[in-house]
Design brief:
This protein has about 260 residues and is of the alpha/beta class. The chain contains eight helices and eleven strands. Helix 1 crosses helix 8 and helix 4 runs parallel beside helix 6. The structure holds NADP nicotinamide-adenine-dinucleotide phosphate (NAP). The site of NADP nicotinamide-adenine-dinucleotide phosphate has 27 residues, from helix 1, helix 4, strand 5 and strand 7.
Length: about 260
């Protein structure tokens, strides 16, 4: 069992902290807690080029580790020293992808990888767990193509949600943030090398989209994840809808 003590420095672990949502989580966590260390776990194990040159991320409190959640022993090995020397406040998983494009891969990355993240989180003594899943409000609309185009993505998301909902012993400590389309400036694109400097402002497109589908700003989503992760309070339920995310665990929302 890992040693957990309030005398240890505190840490957050961010699975997928090199991606669009994950890098926003890092920025929120760095600004909300001036002492907490952040450990990013991803398959590349290095900060994307734009993060390396962005002042927000220039701090010795940010560490990048290599680990593949589909080979969970690699993640456990990478995190073992962290669990010995830090109090792990939470693990936040921003892992999930539609590439490489196959339903089997989507189930694995959205489902299996996140189930491994959850299991590892508990085994290293993390106090809380947050995972990004997906809003479902348009699922039955005839014109909404995604349930037919990417069923494996939704299947994977359902699997991690069921896994957490079925874990009665850990009730209140783990939540699924059911995000709509995430708006903001995307600086990494899945499948493209992270040394490329990209800037894709999604806001203009999502201004139109939000007339018919739930949309959430990337910083708003990231802030909610960090508020819950750092709060001493338990969550009232596992699933958090897109509408609830902006005020989730803010001072006005009793836990
Ligand atoms: N973007 C949206 O509009 C949206 C909407 C609703 C929900 N979400 C959910 O929010 C989460 C984050 O989305 P995003 O747009 O930020 O995705 P993203 O930019 O593609 O980032 C995904 C991250 O996961 C890591 N990753 C992928 N496979 C991994 C594995 N096997 N082991 C460890 N790390 C792995 C990637 O890094 P490496 O490649 O280095 O491993 C990357 O850091 C996903 O679960 C997504 O489904 C996103």
């Amino acid at each position: 069992m890992p040693t957990q003590s309030s005398t240890l420095p505190s840490a957050l672990i961010v699975f997928g902290g090199t991606g669009f949502v994950g890098t926003a989580v890092l920025a929120q966590a760095l600004s909300r807690d001036p002492h907490c260390h952040l450990f990013v776990v991803s398959r590349t194990g290095v900060a994307p080029a734009w993060v390396q040159s962005n002042p927000t991320y220039q701090t010795p409190r940010l560490h990048f580790l290599q680990g593949d959640l589909l080979a969970p022993h690699t993640v456990l090995e990478a995190l073992q020293p962290v669990s010995q020397h830090y109090r792990i406040r939470a693990c936040i998983s921003c892992v999930g992808a539609i590439t490489p494009w196959s339903n089997q891969n989507m189930v694995r990355t959205c489902g299996d990888a996140n189930i491994h993240a959850y299991t590892i989180s508990k085994s290293i003594g993390a106090e809380k767990f947050v995972v990004m899943t997906r809003d479902r409000s348009n699922m039955d609309d005839w014109w909404y193509p995604f349930p037919r185009l990417i069923p494996g993505y939704y299947e994977g998301k359902s699997r991690i949600e069921s896994c957490i909902q079925g874990d009665a012993d850990n009730l209140g400590n783990a939540v699924c943030l059911r995000a709509g389309f995430v708006s903001g400036t995307r600086r990494t694109v899945p499948g493209l090398p992270t040394w490329l400097k990209i800037s894709l402002p999604l806001q203009p497109m999502y201004k139109v989209l939000q007339q018919v589908c739930p949309v959430i700003d990337v910083e708003v989503l990231a802030a909610a994840a960090v508020r819950f992760a750092l709060s001493p309070h338990k969550a009232p339920r596992v699933l958090v809808t897109n509408d609830e995310i902006p005020t989730y665990f803010d001072s006005a929302t009793p836990a």
